[in-house]
Amino acid sequence: MPISIPYVYKYSFEYAAIETVSPLIRRVTARNPSGFTFNGTGTYIIGHGNVAVIDPGPMIAEHIQALKSALHEETVTHILITHTHADHSPAAAPLKLAWNAPTYGYGPHGAGKIADGIPIEEGGDMDFTPDHELRDGDIIHGDGWTIESVYTPGHTSNHLCFALLEEKALMTGDHVMGWSTSVIGPPDGDMTAYMESLEKLLSRDDTVYWPTHGTCIKDIKPFVRAFIAHRLDREQQIIACLKQGNHQINAMVPIMYKETQPALHPAAARSVLSAMIRLIDLGKIRTEGPATLQSQFYLSNPG
What we know:
Blueprint: E1 18-22, E2 25-29, E3 42-46, E4 50-54, H1 61-70, E5 75-80, H2 92-99, E6 103-105, H3 111-114, E7 132-133, E8 139-141, E9 146-151, E10 160-164, E11 169-173, H4 191-202, E12 208-211, H5 220-243, H6 249-256, H7 265-281, E13 285-287, E14 297-299
Parallel strand pairs: 4-5, 5-6, 6-7, 11-12
Antiparallel strand pairs: 1-2, 2-3, 3-4, 8-9, 9-10, 10-11, 13-14
């Protein structure tokens, strides 16, 4: 039976408008809805007067102007990036110039893998390099707000969440979203790291999540446990497909994702590949040579 995840699909928002969602958090939503971004990228503004901006978003003129207009009487002191996908970080460049504000992030695209000598294909925002690199547990002090950097690789190797300590609120980027699971596409995406990063959240005392796409998640621990259970269920689906004689990912995806739009199957295949790599590392399946979308996979112990 598929794992039930209590997604939140309905909430109020308006494109290119500033919304107050908590005492210290405001949001401006970019007009870039899609099967990967839900209603669009939510850029978060932390504090009042001297503020931080989290995930300035895509290079959309309307969105960039909306942020400039919303903050024209305030001072942006920090621009924080959860990760370097094209719907999160590109607008940092023009807004940095407009606000004269430094950028903060884990590192350039692929930073978490390149550091280990693993080559990363292009596909993210390759132009972004933070002015200041953050690591797990780093603290940023602002005017009336304090943010802790929480390293959560998996969706990308440079993914960070940001904890607003005054509200016990975690800005989760694409690590945990309220409307969908995340695509984990290797080599930069890493299912083992992703599962470890989910487990990491269970040991924290946050009380609410604010993802970059969609609205807040309030009952957070059961939500994260459901995400973990969902991924473990996907692994069991893979093993079932192998037992049925389906040895390639392109044969498994229509079975495993029969309720998903076919247009999203290529992305789903990337997540299946990442799950395959994790299962290989666990010794449960095998393949000849490096695992790819075209590989043939087999159970390590067919009996």
